[in-house]
Amino acid sequence: MSRTAVAPLERLKILLQVQNPHSIKYSGTVQGLKYIWRTEGFTGLFKGNGTNCARIVPNSAVKFFSYEEASKGILWLYRRQTGNEDAKLTPVLRLGAGACAGIIAMSATYPMDMVRGRLTVQAVDGVVRQLMTEFFSLYFYLQTDKSPTQYRGIFHALKTVFVEEGPRALYKGWLPSVIGVIPYVGLNFAVYESLKDWLIRSKPFGLNEDSELSVTTKLACGAAAGTVGQTVAYPLDVIRRRMQMVGWKDAASVVTGDGKSKAPLEYTGMIDAFRKTVRNEGFGALYKGLIPNSVKVVPSIAIAFVSYEVVKDILGVEMRISD
């Protein structure tokens, strides 16, 4: 639900992150969305969303389950060390549990995220031929007569990368992703849960009367958590996306440039990617795409958290994230 709602902004963010600075196609949020609509049609706004949704289902399931299990384990150790059986998780401990959950979930589904990035930016230069029904298959891709060889979907992309670039290529950009998980996912959980606990304890502004927060209040907590997490971790996300494009011989013109700079992207590692990005494009390049990402992360993260707890209430599941 949350990823589909903000799919156009997600795709634009990735395009801004990796586009060649010498051949600018997307210069801003509004202009970028209009350009995609004009050149690729309505379906172009959702390009790569099928892959993202297919990835996010196992990713979210593993992440939330891992968080709850890690929280219980950390709380058990904390109570043993302090000797206080009524001790609660502190924000630091929640950060640790959230980081562990994020790393486990991200690592388990990283190859799908890697090919999703490539599916999102592969070249499109003419009229889109895909139907919206392809969203429900795992082959939501866009290809035209003017495009180079394209990935035909998740499985074709995974196979092609594995054969042409080797199995390690499926984990390009994994290191900055792991490092980015700590502030991004960790702070998301920590800020969200800490805000909820503070609101329940202090009862400010009459927000809660029966020690139960409303959906609107939870939405605000999720929005605040998402904003903090994405801002701190964003430069690592830019580097991750750029590293994922290395070695792609059929990279789209948005990455390699339209006749101005066809040299392939080459990074020897995360530090080299940081150094070359800042040296060639300036420090601001580490925040390319931040505006559409900021616009989309608030509803995306908030809807994800609220939907999770509402569905658990509907299903009658007693364990909640806040437990």
Descriptive account of the structure:
By secondary structure, this protein is mostly helical. It has helices at 2-5, 7-18, 29-40, 49-82, 91-121, 154-165, 174-202, 215-245, 253-256, 270-281, 290-315. The longest helix has 34 residues, at 49-82. 41% of the residues are buried.
Topology:
Layout lengths: L1 H4 L1 H12 L10 H12 L8 H34 L8 H31 L32 H12 L8 H29 L12 H31 L7 H4 L13 H12 L8 H26 L8
Helix pairs in contact: 2-3, 2-11, 4-5, 5-6, 5-7, 7-8, 8-10, 8-11
Outline of this structure?
The chain is an all-alpha fold and 323 residues long. Helices cover 64% and strands 0% of the residues.
Main features:
323 residues; 11 helices; 0% strand; mainly alpha; globular
Q: Strand portion, in percent?
A: under 5%
Helix proportion of residues, in percent?
A: 55-70%
Computed structural class: mainly alpha
Q: Could you give the distance between the termini?
A: 24 Å
Q: Let me know the number of strands.
A: 0
